[in-house]
């Protein structure tokens, strides 16, 4: 019994280790971010009022009180349902992402085994378990996988789509391809960046199928993909101008914020710099090893052979017919990794690195244990070094956060002690104190997009207290907030604990305010 199911028992054990690692400083690393606050606010408004919008930014962003569109509806409505079942809290919001990450790890385990199907069963299982082991100790994955944002849902549904596509290829099932199209459409409806899973699949098919446009299965797949998108677009008619305006503001936001990859190499500790250098090197080497395939067995036998350049997506197996013909059976891994890096560089946000990590590890393990490559020893050394630095980073975090699991709530209580119930509060903090004040005080937050300046001044005029330690407002409104505080500050306090600190600014009564 144990011999037959040893891999599943070990997988459950690894998932238990993963849960334990995530339970440590669950709310401290990463800090609770303003994105989690506004997503929670939209979800709770859907649940309580049937309104897809938020009041925490006032009228500073067009249509935002009733038409929150730059995130499509799947994640927001799932979060609302999750809150209805388990209750409203930042803990439950992050537990949704954690639950999705567990599902992803299980999918990845069986998904990866399919790539190794020509290996002996026990070896295939051990290699797949090794992949899961390295991933659950990756600090980037641990950090972002529990973030109360959309990324973990995109990754989970995206890889589920790819896994079902594998099954469709194995069984030559055309109906399953329709299901794949639907799932990829739903992935795009979690976050528009989820389109990259569809783009990856589409490019892979185009590279491997010369007659793609004459296969009816291809068009069935496309129709299935567009069904969720069309339903959403119909549901928001006639508010397309609001959608376009909000997406435009998102584009401007990308131009204003610094790149996280750049910030890593400029500001973060040396261990983090080394980790990202290894990410880049492993990605480059594994991508090159996919393009330049060599006959290592001939090299080992002393046969004089040359490294051959083979087109991306060159047939690895050729059986079946039509759209599900087996060609380039894992070419979407390097394509997905390449697109993930492009998303990181141009999307600029830290949270997008999880896409890189989730494509990089399977590709590296595949090159190491199946395809073999002249640079395999270097890849193995880099992989082990990455594991060591991730462990070191985790240990450093443990030293910082040990005995501080409740630091967020302690910080919140300190801040609350300075502000009476019912007072209107403006928040610009990390960790975001939205979950501390929700239901106790009316809340406004720093708008995270380019704002209407006059509406932003109106929002400030409604505020009685400001809590500040994050100054992203300078990206969008320059020094307007600084000047407003100078003109209208009545009292100022500084509060905090060993981890978090913030300034509390009490403003003069509204009828005495002066505008900068």
Condensed summary:
This protein is mainly α.
- What is the average of the pLDDT values? 86
Biggest sheet character: 5 strands, mixed
Dominant shape: globular
Instruction: Give the N-to-C terminal Cα separation.
Output: 75 Å
Structural class based on helices, strands and sheet pairing: mainly alpha
Beta-strand level of the residues, as a percent range?
5-15%
What is the helix/strand order? HHHHHHHHHHHHHEHEHHHHEHEHEHHEE
**Strand arrangement, major sheet:** 4-3-5-7-6
Unreliable stretches: 294-328
The gyration radius over C-alpha positions equals 25 Å
| Count of discrete alpha- or pi-helical segments spanning 4 or more residues | 22
Q: How much helicity do the residues have?
A: 55-70%
Strand count: 7
Describe the structure.
The chain is mainly alpha-helical and 516 residues long. Helices cover 62% and strands 6% of the residues. The chain is built from 22 helices and seven strands. The protein has helices at residues 2-23, 34-49, 73-86, 90-115, 121-136, 139-145, 151-171, 174-188, 195-208, 216-235, 240-256, 260-267, 270-291, 296-300, 332-347, 353-371, 376-401, 407-416, 434-437, 453-462, 473-477, 480-488, and strands at 292-293, 308-309, 425-428, 443-445, 465-468, 489-496, 501-507. The strands form two sheets. The protein has a five-stranded mixed sheet.
